[in-house]
Amino acid sequence: MKKSLSVAAAKKSFAECMSRAAAGDPTVITREGRPVAAIVPLAEFETPRGPRGPRGSLLGLVDQDDTDELAEALGRIVAERGAPRPVADFD
């Protein structure tokens, strides 16, 4: 069961949060009621999942072996939003 604590509460019970993570239970840390971080089991953190985890990366939206599906999904998003925004040239 995922536990949620404010930053202040997490500071006070950091050892408990670490024990929970070691046992496989993550603790979500909130600031002003919004989740901002998590203390997770190390194995979960080290699993390759893309730059932002399984749901945060674009490939998390589709089967990672089907990049055509990703391209189609991005094409639909661009079509719905209209013209693409200009991209800065950093060269």
Short description:
Helix content is 38%, strand content 16%.
Structure notes:
The protein has 2 domains: 1-47, 3-Layer(aba) Sandwich (YefM-like fold), CATH 3.40.1620.10; 51-81, no CATH class. The model has no long low-confidence stretch (mean pLDDT 77). The protein has helices at 7-12, 14-22, 42-46, 67-81; strands at residues 3-6, 27-31, 34-39. 3% of the residues are buried. The protein is elongated, with a radius of gyration of 19 Å. By secondary structure, the protein is α+β, with helices and mostly antiparallel strands. β2 and β3 (34-39) form a beta hairpin.
Name the CATH architecture of the largest domain: 3-Layer(aba) Sandwich
Approximately how much beta-strand content do the residues carry?
A: 15-25%
State the secondary-structure class.
Answer: alpha+beta
Task: Provide the residue-averaged pLDDT.
Answer: 77
Report the C-alpha radius of gyration, rounded.
Answer: 19 Å
Write the CATH homologous superfamily of the largest domain.
YefM-like domain
Which range best describes the helical content: under 10%, 10-25%, 25-40%, 40-55%, 55-70% or over 70%?
25-40%
Could you give a short account of the major beta sheet?
Answer: 3 strands, mixed
- Global morphology: elongated
Strand order of the largest sheet: 1-2-3
Q: What count of structural domains? A: 2
Can you tell me the residue ranges where pLDDT is under 50 for at least 5 consecutive residues? none
CATH topology of the largest domain: the name is: YefM-like fold
Number of E strands: 3
Task: Figure out the total of helices.
Answer: 4
- Our measurement of the CA-to-CA distance between the termini, rounded to an integer number of angstroms, reads 48 Å
Along the chain, the helix and strand elements come as EHHEEHH
Q: What is the highest CATH level, the class of the largest domain?
A: Alpha Beta
